[in-house]
Amino acid sequence: FNGFPGFAGFGLTTDDAGITQAYNTGYTYWTDFLFQAMFAATAATIVSGAVAERIKLSSFMIFTVLYVTLIYPWAGSWKWGGGWLDARGFYDFAGSTLVHSVGGWAALAGAIMLGARRGKYVAGRIRALPGHNMPLAAIGVFLLWLGWFGFNGGSVLSADPGATSLTLMTTCIAAAAGGLGAMYTSWIVSKKPDLSMGLNGILAGLVSITAGADLMGLHSALLIGPIA
């Protein structure tokens, strides 16, 4: 199939040869399955943010099952399973594309199918729908920031202190720079700081650095955050 569909390990079928010696002797096929299950769940939560309050729970659960069992593993195999993207030199350390972009496209498809939220367009004009609880939103973003250390740091797939510490530093710097860049941009444009923009900037910095957090230097991370 030229590396397009990936079925390696389908149905949790493996043997002792499934131990991945390329990372370290303690990282096995089963360890990778549990770690990747967290990635799949993360991708599904991206979609939930776009369709929340506009879709039946039963419908969303059906979609989630299909997404985490078919769509995400298939797309992930293109790089992490040695598929066609990997053969062409594509690099995605912890899922900027394979997790967040694929999840984002699925969210866009859901939003298009459901249509605009009620009250979004009034008399042909766009109406802003501000967040209902910004303190709670801020807590959520900071919890995501904390969890991202496990997301990116864990993607080193070994106990290598040098690689792990670099990954954690670039992740943190990109997030901080992204938040500050978005906050200052909103301050310049709107003449006042916008908390929601700052929070979105943090998330943008985290997502953007995820592709190369293990290879980029601190100065690169400092630039990637605001650019995102």
From TrEMBL:
Localisation: Membrane
Transmembrane regions listed in the UniProt entry: 33-52, 59-78, 98-116, 128-148, 168-189, 201-224
Gene Ontology CC terms, in alphabetical order: membrane
Coiled-coil portions: none
DNA-binding found in the keyword field: no
Any Gene Ontology biological process: ammonium homeostasis
Membrane topology label: Multi-pass membrane protein
MF GO annotations: ammonium channel activity
Entry keyword Transcription regulation: no
InterPro entries: Ammonium/urea_transptr, Ammonium_transpt_CS, NH4_transpt_AmtB-like_dom
Domain Ammonium transporter AmtB-like as annotated: residue spans: 22-228
Keyword vocabulary terms for this entry: Ammonia transport, Membrane, Transmembrane, Transmembrane helix, Transport
Family named by the database record: Belongs to the ammonia transporter channel (TC 1.A.11.2) family.
Record's protein name: Ammonium transporter AmtB-like domain-containing protein
